[in-house]
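It is worth pausing here to work through a concrete case rather than discussing structure prediction in the abstract. The textbook approach is simple: state the sequence, then state the predicted structure, then interpret. We follow exactly that order.
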Amino acid sequence: MYHRILIPTDGSTYSEAAIPHGLALAKQLAIPVTFLYVKEESLAPLLASNSMPVTQEFLDELERRIEQIGKEALNRAQALAKEAGVTAESKVADGLPAQAIVAEATSDDLIVMGTHGRGSLATFIIGSVTESVLHRAPCPVLAVPAAHTSKVTGG
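Step two, the predicted structure:
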């Protein structure tokens, strides 16, 4: 049925609430997971325009911080996978989160993601990443509310 579970994470409480659910399913189905962090570029045009004066130093620091957040989120996810005994890989993509998630997914996947994420001005205006993925994904999507945190158990 499924060959892999794709678990996007942006490091937020909401996105990380979905990780134990994805890992529990992967363990029961004996399939691997792929953690995906998307370096969102929606603010780049605004920051690069003359309407908001910023220095190259500021842009470089912002890029370093975005990469650090992603690395930390993926490291936490990998630690949970190791603890659960689930094979996992991590990927980083550039672009808009919903587009990158849909592009990474295949018809044989299951996407497990939080109902909300870190968000940005663009996602506030356009709508949630999860909603967009739900409408465009080539595979089933399990949307996990942050209130549904759980521990991965053996089984």
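Step three, interpretation. Confidence is low (pLDDT under 50) at residues 120-127, 151-155. The longest strand covers residues 33-40.
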